[in-house]
Amino acid sequence: MPETPVLTRQVDLRLAVAFAQSLVAAVRSAAGSADALAILRSGVHAECPQCHLRLFGEDVLALAGSEAPQAEVSPKLHRLAQGFCGRQDCEALFYEFTFDPAPPVDWAAVLAQVDGAVTPEASEAGAAETALADQKAIAKKRTRLRVLAGLAVVLLLLLARHLMTGGTIPFLREPRRFTADPASLPHLGETGAPPPSPATNKARTFRAAP
Ligand SMILES: [Zn+2]
To answer: Ligand 1 centroid to 89 CA: how many Å?
Structure first.
């Protein structure tokens, strides 16, 4: 009996999520009663040709998940879901996938199915979805900032009202007066010529008056 050849595939990282989803779906249907996760674990490996970062079956399964992995949970999978190598700063554009024999799954049949399903158009739809999720996260952050800004305004208004009705700033028992330190002021008019412009932007120091 001839040895089953080890199959490989170069996968464009922009298609990584679509590829993982299609692969997991194809393995699940080909596995029948066998454990699809075990087949993915023993049969699927991928490696970055540049930095040699490796992916295993469970990474492929996580990439195929319905939600893109969050950066806090897995920076590697988050980067992969965005179409980049999982290693920070690696600029690889594709991964080399290897499929070791994993009966009862016939990788040639599974890959034929995956190749037909994974097209650049399919991945664009996925990218649009990711962009939408990012926009939602940004909107959430903006709302939080707006609430904080609103609270700050309310506090300032309360403080202004307190001062206008004769109160002092809480925790500052004694009002202090400040005078400018003459040494730190620009020497205007000494030479008659305007001072060199950098001097006007120099930080000035202030001393509390006795
Ligand atoms: Zn890499």
So the answer is: 8
